[in-house]
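Hey, can you fold this one?
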Amino acid sequence: MNAPLPKAPINWIGVFALVFLPIVALIAIPLYAWHHDFSTAAWISLFVLLGLSSLGITAGYHRLWAHRAYEATVLLKIILMIMGTFAVQNSILFWASGHRTHHRHVDDVDQDPYSINNGFWYAHIGWMLRNYPAAEANYKNAPDLLNDKIVMFQDKYYIPLVIVVHAAILLPIGWAVGDMWGVLLLGGLLRLIFSHHVTFFINSLCHMWGKRPYTDENTARDNFILAIATWGEGYHNYHHIFQYDYRNGVKWWQYDPTKWLIWSCSKVGLAKNLRRIPSFNIKKAELAMKFKYAEQDLAVYGHDVNADIAAMKQKVSQEYEAFTHTLNDWAKLKEQEIQAKKASVAEKIHQMDGKLKVDFQLVEQKLSHHRSRLETLMRGIKKNVVS
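Sure. Predicted structure:
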């Protein structure tokens, strides 16, 4: 059990934004609804503006500035900066630098700004209510952001920009639909609270709830339900092992509107150089975890319980070793490609890529077969134990 966190000075700005404003919302919104009711347009503004501010964080603060997963034109940067400012989650510089620290020291109770090992409350919101040392600004990991004029402009004028952006977005909408207070309360205040907690779910629930198909070296999880709530950010296990990919939902069927937004921007010339992790690297991580889970299943019953299990364990080990050799050969060729850039080497790599596709399919089939046999054996063992 971790030692209790030492008391740190209260962050009054964080308390105002994350405690006081929700209290105001709990009082003001029901009162207004009781006396005036909300227009349909005000409710629509809540959901549309929630998407606007949330995508400013996911596509802008997170994937563009924190991870450099793609490049954006000046116009797109300005749009994403405005959208992110509307979300009121501090400046790009502070947010992105802190997030890089989180990835570098993930789960470390002393160095990860929002380590889940300090508890759900701390990871979700507590780290912002007090000035803990782990969350202090340190921009040594962000020289690129310090040289970004748009980032530094926003950081310098952050508070005035928050006020101007909110006024420029909310007031014209409220005036146009004839429900100024309705839009301010739903599209402004309630939307802000929802936007905050949608992002905070990534730091808290996505490190507690879900599956780990790519790595178990940290607490990050993949969770489809949270992906819906967080605009595609819920595939967090994938993100923590492949943080520079512009996609979080890497499978074609995974819900990731942030990925679709970035891809769409690239098609109209607003974004370019979208970074994608090679499919072989992804498959390698997936298969490594499948082998690991298979080994764990076998270990449940020990090494000497059953000859069939021992034989299967040996087969799994042999296949994984052979698979590792294949990957090493491929990696060597890739290194040759970087060093030599010769046509003959490139052709050899192309042939190896084709061979790897077949090898991946075969090893996946073998593993699936072994896991099926393993489940059958486990059921038989359990049956014998019970009887």
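The chain is about 70% helix and 0% strand. Let me know if you want another pass with a different chain boundary.
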